[in-house]
Amino acid sequence: MKNHKFNNNNDFNTKIEYQVDNEFFKAFEDKSKDLGIFKIGYTKIETKNINQEIIYKNVIILAIEMDERIIKTSPGELAKNLNKNFYDKFRKITESLSEYLKTKGLKTQIVYPNEKLLDLPFLGQKAGLGYVGKSGLLITSEFGSKIKLSGILTSIDNPIFSKSSNDHKWIEERCKDCDECIESCESEALAIKGGDYIAELLESKCIGSEEGCTYCIEKCPFNEKGYLAVKKEFLGNTG
């Protein structure tokens, strides 16, 4: 593993990047999956989104399936507790993987699943894990939008962070004509924005954190029918 300094003139030019091989990534991904992560993506932070809080430009995106009990439980104290326990578990997994990288001599910064340091669904899309749907959540082929994301900003330097391919762009067209997530939100926390297929989240109305509400996920066709069924139905009608 060798290191080198950035050559550009932004805030990163005092940081050290470390290059690792494919065996390193395989070992990291195997450990992640052992802890419950079902999908991992790699991408870069766009320069316009870099600020003093963000230390490194490369980010590892971790995706985990939500506890089915949260989805099936109506908003209230039980759902809230299930949701909190799930987030606590995911935070610990992310911290464990961050520590694993540090034991290899790497530098890291954690982006927790419920904080706003970065737009994790967008970065998940950029990393090719899925595509952002109308609800603003990332939709994946494995579990639809029934997932949560966290991130690890890292000093690793490898071409894998520069690769960009996404086979899920059709989701954008599918979501343009669907309002299930908006209509299912009893607190009216999702609103159509002019010129954008992604709804605006009105955080003051959303009870996702306070009461464990997941109606926008539960009623999404990608959850009710499944990704493959929705894809076949949509592309079959448009092909």
Structural commentary:
- The chain has 239 residues and is α+β, with helices and mostly antiparallel strands.
- 37% of the residues lie in helices and 22% in strands.
- Strand 6 and strand 7 form a beta hairpin.
Features:
single chain; 239 residues; alpha+beta; 4-stranded antiparallel sheet; 3-stranded mixed sheet; globular
Main β-sheet: number of strands, strand sense, barrel status? 4 strands, antiparallel
Number of strands: 11
Quickly give the structural class.
alpha+beta
Provide mean pLDDT, rounded.
89
Low-confidence stretches: 1-14
Estimate percent helicity: 25-40%
Number of helices: 10
**How many whole angstroms does the radius of gyration measure?**
19 Å
From N to C, what is the helix and strand string? Answer: EEHEEHHEHEEEEHHEEHHHH
| Gross morphology | globular
Strand arrangement across the biggest beta sheet: 3-4-8-5
Distance between the termini: 48 Å
Beta-strand content: 15-25%
Q: Could you provide a short overview of the structure?
A:
With 239 residues, this protein is of the alpha+beta class. It has ten helices and eleven strands.
Describe the SSE topology:
Blueprint: E1 2-5, E2 16-19, H1 22-34, E3 37-44, E4 58-65, H2 68-72, H3 77-103, E5 108-111, H4 120-126, E6 131-132, E7 138-139, E8 147-154, E9 156-157, H5 170-176, H6 180-184, E10 190-193, E11 196-201, H7 208-211, H8 215-218, H9 221-224, H10 227-238
